[in-house]
Design goal:
4-stranded antiparallel beta sheet, 4 helices, 9 strands, elongated
Length: 150
C-alpha cells in the first residue's frame, strides 16, 4: 500500500515537472520593436499590439535572424511545401503609425502599415540579391521546435 502511494506521488511529480518544462519551452521569442516569433507547432513572425498579435510572416518559419533594423526569415509553406524568404525592415515609424491607427480606431490602413515593412515572399536568388543590395549582413539560423524533431 505504501509503495503504491509513493509510486502515485512520484508519477504526479514527474508529470508536473514535464508540464512546467513544456510551458517554458513554448515561450515566444521577442525580436524587438513589437515583433515576436510565435513558438507553437508552426512558428511564425507576428507583430504584437495591445492584447493580441498580428501575423506578418506565415508559418512555418524554419530559419530566422534579426538585429535592431531587420528580421530575415525562411519559411516552408504548409500547403505547397515551397521554400520562401522574407525580410522585415523594422522602422520606428511603424510604432507611431500603429499608435495613430489604434487611437483613431480605423481599420483601413492596418495591414498596409504592417506589410509596408515586409518584403517577400522571395525565392533564394532574389533574397540574396536583396540582402546584398541593402547591405544586410545577417545569416539565417535554424529555428528548432523544442520538442518535435521537425
Amino acid at each position: 500500500m505504501i509503495l503504491k502511494f509513493r509510486y502515485f506521488i512520484y508519477t504526479v511529480l514527474a508529470l508536473f515537472v514535464l508540464f512546467v518544462c513544456v510551458i517554458f519551452l513554448f515561450e515566444d521569442k521577442n525580436l524587438g520593436d513589437g515583433y515576436l516569433l510565435w513558438s507553437d507547432t508552426a512558428p511564425s513572425v507576428a507583430y504584437k499590439y495591445g492584447g493580441g498579435a498580428y501575423e506578418v510572416i506565415p508559418p512555418k518559419v524554419h530559419m530566422l535572424n534579426y538585429d535592431n533594423n531587420t528580421i530575415i526569415a525562411m519559411t516552408v509553406d504548409i500547403i505547397d511545401q515551397k521554400t520562401k524568404f522574407w525580410v522585415i525592415n523594422k522602422d520606428e515609424r511603424i510604432y507611431d503609425s500603429l499608435t495613430s491607427f489604434f487611437n483613431k480606431k480605423t481599420t483601413s490602413r492596418f495591414e498596409s502599415i504592417l506589410y509596408s515593412q515586409r518584403v517577400g515572399p522571395m525565392d533564394s536568388l532574389s533574397f540574396e540579391e536583396y540582402l546584398k543590395r541593402n547591405d544586410i549582413n545577417l545569416i539565417l539560423d535554424s529555428v528548432r521546435h523544442p520538442i518535435l524533431p521537425f
